[in-house]
Amino acid sequence: MKLTPKDFTLEQKFKLLTGKDYWQLDTSSGKIPRFFMADGPNGLRKVQEVNGEAPNTGGKNATVSATAMPSLSTIANSWNKELCNLDAQVIADECIENDVDVLLAPGINIKRTPLCGRNFEYFSEDPYLSGTLACAYVDGAQGKGVGACIKHYCANNRESFRFHQSSEVDERTLREIYLTAFEMAVKSKPWMVMCSYNPVNGVFLSENKYLLTDVLKGEFGFDGVVVSDWGANTSRYKTLLAGLDLEMPFNKNAFDNLKQAYEQGLISEKDVDRAVQNILNMVEKAQTARKTRKVEWNKQERHQKAVEIASEGIVLLKNENALPLKSGKVLVGTPNGFAPISSGTGSAKVQTDYVTTPLWKLLKGINGDKVEYDWDGYQKSIYERGIDYDTILLCVHGAAEGEAYDRDTLELNYRSIDTIRKVKKLREYGKKIVVLVYAGSAIDMSEWIDDVDAVVYCGFGGEAMDEALAKVLTGKVVPSGKIAETFPLNLESTYCGSDRSDGFVEEYNDRVFVGYRYYEKYNVPVLFPFGHGLSYAQFEYSNLKVEKISETEYNVSYDITNKSNVDAKEISQIYVSDLNAMVARPVKELKGFSKDLIKAGETKTVSVKLDKKAFSYYSTVYKKWHIENGTFEIMVGASSQDIKLSSIIKIELPDHTQNTKEIVYC
Ligand code: BGC
Known about the structure:
five-stranded parallel beta sheet, TIM Barrel, 26% helix, binds beta-D-glucopyranose, 26 strands
């Protein structure tokens, strides 16, 4: 029978709005079936239950063992929607196995500064790429009957002071940069949206009626449950009025606060029922899903999928005839210890029991009959022994990344950088130096980039990292990742630099010029531009056609030829530039992309559709997305800085939709 708010007493309803414990909804003494939430996004992090209770115990043995999937930052580097969808399906399988209804993922905040400690949990600095992948992730999980919860809504772009520092963002920037991925993802109908801890423009998100009710539920049409970030508690009755349906985890003060506010006439039963109804709708979705959902893959199969996903997220940043490894003697150096770090820490850290095999042994297993592999873990001996090898692979790490803190440097950790400093001297003896960077965010490589032959940005590949890497290094898999964030020359050349605000207000004075939009507008040189990544194949782009479908929709098609003798995937990117806008717009913006497998010698025609958002900006005057008539350049690139083809179009909408562009003297 369908439950409605009428089936509950007022007290039961208050309880329903505040959770049962750390991870579950209150059951109203059994009226509502069990409903369990657990963390993602990089795999399942579910706290062990103790007699039906789900505490916040944390710690090593307190969470169930699950597949440690690649981080969302790594998945974004694959630019592969299908793999992103697959990733969420794998995690959903584990949710089903562990009786979880909603996965608290994906994280879709924008990478405004590369220092943000949780960037590894997010996709990109670009809203379109983030939103596209977010949809794929939500569809992947929900297609298997597990609810997704997009987070953290919104403008939560740093970890320092995340509980109270207000993000001061102008309306246009909010819409174009920080809300777009949410707006896009809402179209996939996620069951939940998690609001962030921080205030925006002085009002905590949980109490921000404008952002929760007017924009998210009203304009974007979100019809699921808005949940607080865990402990993002202000005054429960105010958050209820603002549009926050569920506060998590259980907190007695919230219950008392609702009761008191009701008695004082500050909230009505109608206000309570609105949120209760949203929760009941979600419970019903879960019950329907539970009837058919089933585990599809076993542990080994899930692991194999993690390998497949991780291998497409690896980015070959530089390669001067050092890779793939085909012959000779190779020394793998791990100056940071035996096992590489392949995840950040915090609520996204997954407890896996997978026993990884060292990289050098994996390499040996792939082409050990042609290449001789060996390993060394000590800085001094890597250098001393390196003289006997042809190639030295160095596994290096950046500063620690995780929830609740930001990095304070973009440089590698001391042990890593010091090893490169020593080992690079071996180049004088003709040795090839290949640096393998395990990190979840951009790294400053300025000091050593010219002293090494190749750089592979591994990302955080989870438990599959080294298996995926071994395939890419040996050429079994041709690298096909491209960075979903700009790699700046150094921290000082980023907009935010090392500036940490005052802990109270963070002014978003960079406005819409975030990531590559910033470097391009101000001509700031970068180490590797947004969208950069090399392959073992070579591609040639030709034959661009931009065909009008309607006044504001175009079809862009072009050919890509694989000029090499290896089959490989290529990510092509479509950028749009408004050449005569009346407002300050980015030099160009990503509005479409495609990832295609192109066989050796083959030519493939790729087509990408551009819709009206591709040409619009958010007008704070009209309070909506607006297209200005005029000339637009459509560019097809292998990266944001490597534009291969371009074409000009003219948009001519009816006069009444347009403001006058020139002064008319009478
Ligand atoms: C994090 C969320 C997470 C929640 C539950 C919060 O501190 O910000 O991302 O889902 O805890 O672990």
